[in-house]
Amino acid sequence: MMNLLIEQSDMLTEPLTQTLIAFSPQEAYAGITLLAIASDTYLADEELDAIDRHLGQMYLFEHFQPQTMRRMYQKLFTILQRDGEDILLASARETLPPELREAAFASASDLVLADGMISRDESSFLIQLSQALEIPMNIATRILSVTHFKYSCTHVLSNA
After folding, report:
1. Is residue 3 part of a domain?
2. Residue 51 — φ and ψ, nearest 5°?
3. What is the pLDDT of residues 56-98, one digit of tens each?
4. Total number of domains constituting the chain
5. Tell me, what CATH number does 61's domain have?
6. Which pLDDT score, from 0 to 100, does residue 22 have?
7. More confident residue, 4 or 76
8. Once rounded to an integer, what is the mean pLDDT over residues 125-141?
9. What CA–CA distances, in Å, run from 13 to 6, 67, 83?
10. What is the number of other CB atoms lying within 10 angstroms of the CB of residue 94?
């Protein structure tokens, strides 16, 4: 279960037990997507492939070679395992440019809802992520609605 206990206000007022990590915008964005797929407590190879495909289509990552992507994932996995979800999220939040926050939330939503189901842990994660990224509730709701619609239509068509 994800333990994203740092509230938005806590991130700014309470010292973390560990120092935040400086990320590039790409690392911050990828860190958020990694947290999204890890939100259901396990990391499947298919989920890692999904992140790779998802990020590989983005302009933000277009100049990244496969070995660069692998090194970035390894760095993020190490931080996740060593320092935990809270540090990874807080570091990504602090480093991610404000103009990429909604896109990062949309990517996380896309990865979480891709299987057509959402667990309680995943739902809780998305709520906490929208708060941590300071995304207004009406925008977060619209993003989630569109993403849910996207995958519900896909599943209806695949079952036809």
Report:
1. no
2. -60, -45
3. 889 999 999 988 988 998 899 899 989 999 999 999 999 999 9
4. 1
5. 1.10.3680.10
6. 93
7. 76
8. 95
9. 11, 38, 20
10. 14
